[in-house]
Amino acid sequence: MNSPINVLIVDDHPFIIEAYKNAINKYSQQGYEFTISQAGDCKKGYELITDETKSFQMAMFDISMPEYAEKGIHSGEDLAKLMRERKPDCKVILLTMHSEKDKINNIIKNINPDGLIIKNDITFDELIFAIDKIIKNENYYSQTVIKLVGQAKYHDLDLDTLDTQIIYNISKGLKTTEMNNLPLSINSIESRKTRIKQVLEIPNATDLELVKVAKDKGVI
Prior knowledge:
Elements: E1 5-10, H1 14-27, E2 34-39, H2 42-50, E3 58-62, H3 76-86, E4 91-96, H4 101-110, E5 115-118, H5 124-135, E6 140-141, H6 143-149, H7 161-171, H8 186-199, H9 207-216
Parallel strand pairs: 1-2, 1-3, 3-4, 4-5, 5-6
C-alpha cells in the first residue's frame, strides 16, 4: 500500500463532488489510500488551505464558485494560487466549463496546473485516467485544452509553458521588450526564441514564420 494521499475537493455542486470522490475511490483499488476533504465555496476552501494542521497532496478546484471577498478569493483560480503559495508540493487540478482560448491561456500562464480539465470533456473513466497520470507525476490536460492551447509537451515537442507564451506573444505582435507578462529577462526570451526555432526545425525562421509553423504543429 502506498502512503496515504490527502485530497481537497472544492466545488459548489455536491453531485460533482460525489462524482470526483467516486472516481478517486475507484482508483484507490489500484493500491492507493486517499483521505478526502471537501468544500462547497471559496470561504471553506480558504479555511482548509490555510489550516496549518492539514497537508494536501492533491487538490481539485472548480473555477466558478461563491467568492470569499473578505480575503480576496473570488474563484477556484484564486484558491489554486493560494495552494501554490501555502502548499507548493500539492498537485493542483482545475476544472471548468470555460473553453475560451484566452481564459485557458491565462490559467496556464498564471497557475500552470498539474491538471486542467474542461468539464464537457470528461467521463468517469477519463477522470480516473487523469488522476492516474497526475498521481504518477505527469500532467493531464483534457482534449479541448490541448486543442485550444496546443501544449507542446503533449505533441512530443520539448517546449514548456513559457515557450508557448513567448510564441503566443509574438503572434499578438509583441516585441521581446514588450513581453512584460513573462518572468524572464530580455536575454532569456531571446535565448528561448532561438531554442524554440531549433526545436521546430526552423533555425533561421523569422518571427512570423515561427508563428505559422507553431500554429501548423498545434503549439498555439
